[in-house]
Amino acid sequence: MSELKFLPWRFVSGALAGACFAASIQIVTKDVLPRSLFAAIVCFAFSVPTLVVFFFYPPSFLRKKNEGMGGAYGRFHLLFLLSFAAALVGLGCLFFSFGILPGITYLVAVVAARWIVTAGSAHRAHESGFR
């Protein structure tokens, strides 16, 4: 296998796939599933395989500079965003199954994480860290 180069989306894909898989293993041991946990399992069933694929097989679409988003490239990013969203929704369903407070705490953490990613991207932190 070729060298696994660090890319932020690759890191997020692997981490989310692992978290969703671990949560799935714990959920399926229950005898009775509430609706929120069933919804989480459905989300994880979609997101885990696709996030694992995104981790191991990065996109390598050749594009010309002036083409913009090509068809295959656009579909790749759409599928990645859908997988990412399904994983976050599944985890949200999991936390809300424990109650309102854990669910709200999860939502606040997701918003905070998004803010950190946005700030890091604006300062190109993925290349040289925050300065």
Task: Walk me through what this model shows.
The chain is mostly helical and 131 residues long. The chain has a domain at 8-97. 73% of the residues lie in helices and 0% in strands. Helix 1 (8-27) packs antiparallel against helix 2 (35-56). The radius of gyration is 17 Å and the shape is globular. The mean pLDDT is 82.
Topology readout:
Blueprint: H1 8-27, H2 35-56, H3 71-96, H4 100-122, H5 125-128
Main features:
0% strand; 5 helices; mainly alpha; 131 residues; single chain
Q: In terms of structural class, how would the helical and strand content be classed?
A: mainly alpha
SS summary, helix count: 5
Average per-residue pLDDT, rounded, comes to 82
Overall 3D shape:
globular
Uncertain runs: none
Rg calculated over all Cα atoms: 17 Å
Percent strand equals: under 5%
The first-to-last residue Cα distance is 34 Å
Helix content: over 70%
Brief summary of the model shown:
With 131 residues, the chain is an all-alpha fold. The chain has 5 helices and no strands.
